[in-house]
Amino acid sequence: MLLCTDGSDVAIEALRASLPLLAPADRTLVVTVESPVAARTETGNGFWLGPSSPGSSAQIETNGDVLAKQVLDETVDALGLVDVELVAVVGEPGEAICELAASLPASVIVIGTSGRGGLRRAVMGSTSDPVIRHAVCPVLVQGVGRR
After folding, report:
1. pLDDT tens digit sequence for 24-75
2. CA separation, residue 59 to residues 33, 51, 67, 131, 142 (Å)
3. How far is CA 50 from the centre of its chain?
């Protein structure tokens, strides 16, 4: 079973609501996806950000690993999970989750959605949409309404 998180309250609440619906799995992985680090990244205002020294790219990747571990640890703690594996993968979230699920193979993917619709969804995108379309196993999508 793959439990997907980005560390947000929405993701944690979605997992919390979903877990009682699922039978215990032989293997449970809590997964987060890190964005790939490009050598040069353009910001929205046209400025380019890139490594300022030869070793800074490695430092960015190391910091990403630390943040991913923090996201995973906080999710496990918030949900009170025990005996789970922590996994951080790099890539586009929907694609990376589907690839991981196929490689295991996973019995189910659990992922949250914030319930954005219309223009907000078109502009900001959705991680759950490509997972639903391309996963090789069932996907449980838990929406968390706005309060």
Report:
1. 899 999 999 988 765 444 444 444 444 434 444 444 445 568 889 999 999 9
2. 18, 9, 12, 30, 35
3. 25
Backbone phi, psi, residue 82, to 5°:
-130, 155
Distance CA 147, CA 72 (A): 25
Question: Which structure tokens are listed for 69?
Answer: 């571990």
pTM flag (> 0.85)? no
Residues contacting 134, CB < 8 A, separation 6+ = 94, 95, 98
Tokens of 113: 């959605």
What is the Cβ-side half-sphere exposure of residue 32, based on CA atoms within 13 angstroms? 22
